[in-house]
């Protein structure tokens, strides 16, 4: 009976150790998965920040192009007005 009890404790200890090993492996796998997800999220954040920076740069370039286009339009309008006045003066002569 005593040998059977000792064998039972040994079996219980072996099973518990096996479960602990499985739990450790599962915990290690979960930690690795969490670390991978964290790295993926960090990469996504870096990509988003880079895209936002590029968008700001593109907007600044577009704003500069719009300002240049407005200045060119103003110059063209002024030239047209001068040409119109010159034509009117020439037709009066």
UniProtKB/TrEMBL annotation:
Residues 75-93 have a biased composition (Basic and acidic residues). The keyword Repeat does not apply. It comes from Marinobacter psychrophilus. Residues 40-74 have a biased composition (Low complexity). Residues 31-93 are annotated as: Disordered. The keyword Signal applies. The lineage of its organism: Bacteria, Pseudomonadati, Pseudomonadota, Gammaproteobacteria, Pseudomonadales. Residues 1-19 form the signal peptide. InterPro entries: Oprl. This is Lipoprotein. Pfam families: Alanine_zipper. Keywords: Signal.
